[in-house]
Amino acid sequence: MGSFARGAGYRSRFIHDFCDSVELAEHLSAIAGVHLGRHSVPAVACGINYAPEDITRAVDTWHVDSVAFDVVLMLSDPATIKGGEFQFFHGTKDEGQALLGIRGEEGRDAELPCDRVKTIAFPAAGYGFLQQGNMIFHRARRLAKKVERVTMIPSFEVLPASTRDATNSINMLDWSDPGLAAELARREVWRAAARLNGLLDTISLSHDRSTLHRLIGDALEPLHSLQESLEKPDS
User: Fold this and answer.
1) pLDDT of residue 106
2) Residue 187: which of 175, 178, 179, 199 has the closest Cα?
């Protein structure tokens, strides 16, 4: 795989403001049909991906993302790039992963049947697209010639915070970014607090013990899962 810079918003005020743009979030929400906001984990809110120095390696292997929605924005001039095409599997992620013998968010540099692979062309620098990253099995192919290929990946989550969002915080805990565990903990505490607050209007005096147990458990489950994963030693 190529190199990347997660947390680019920490490094650049311009990138931070772009990814945090209300106009961008509203535009993408209209496309997705759900309310989206800039991802609450700064390390993944906006990243930069670079092609590898070794062009025998894929720019990015077949994989799914750890976030519900993200944008793939081409920063380089695609007319100068040979190879490195963005592709997605025309089928479910489970089907694509089964063909390659992988699962979860594991990646693999391999070939899928050509008739099941779709390629997205970028008309020019500055063009991009929105994808449901955790559901789309995708990759960026190897370069045919060494050249600069840079993409920016703003990430988004479903709002309000009380709703379910497909961000895989457990998987992100294995990433090496400094401070990421604390960022993920803050996110899950924030969203759990919103769900618990919503229970104040949901719980009825007619609810039995079993129902109350389920409602509270559902509200706390993502936070508890992260808490249990934090008990494991750093890899």
Assistant:
1) 85
2) 179
